[in-house]
Amino acid sequence: MIALGCDHAGFLLMREVKKYLEENKIEYLDFGTDSEESVDYPIYGKKVAEAVVSGECVCGILICGTGIGISIAANKMEGIRAALCHDCFSAQATREHNDANILAMGARVVGGGLAIKIVDTFLNTPFSENEKHIKRIEMIE
Fold first, then answer.
1. Catalytic pick among 8, 64, 86, 133
2. Cα separation of 112 and 101, whole Å?
3. Mean pLDDT value across residues 1-19
4. 86 is catalytic
5. 57 flagged as catalytic
6. At what angle do helices 131-140 and 88-98 cross, to 10 degrees?
7. Mean pLDDT of 24-41
8. Fold for the domain defined by 2-140
9. What share of the chain is helix, strand, coil (3-state, %, to 5)?
């Protein structure tokens, strides 16, 4: 199960992400928001982070205008490794090297087509389980 969350700026892009997930029969929980009406992104970053930390969801996807604020909010929670990615290489590397458990994107930075490629890369790239990467993750925590 994937946890989804966005603010008003990420609402339209999140609709495209949901469509991709539905087409690929990937289950998700939507923690909002549900419109383009202005809201505060930390609320949604926290909800998704809590769902991932609790084990309710295996990972999360967050979207705000730039992806910066919502990723900072999620990373405040112990056990979260939210990575802001605006390209497929970063999405692949953060899964392989950092075992990132939340993908953050900026709707004002990436378009729908690229966002879907980033999501696909993030969801389909396994952690390398290389000893040096494990050690580094432990150092972060």
1. 64
2. 21
3. 98
4. no
5. no
6. 90
7. 97
8. Ribose 5-phosphate Isomerase B; Chain: A, (3.40.1400)
9. 50, 15, 35
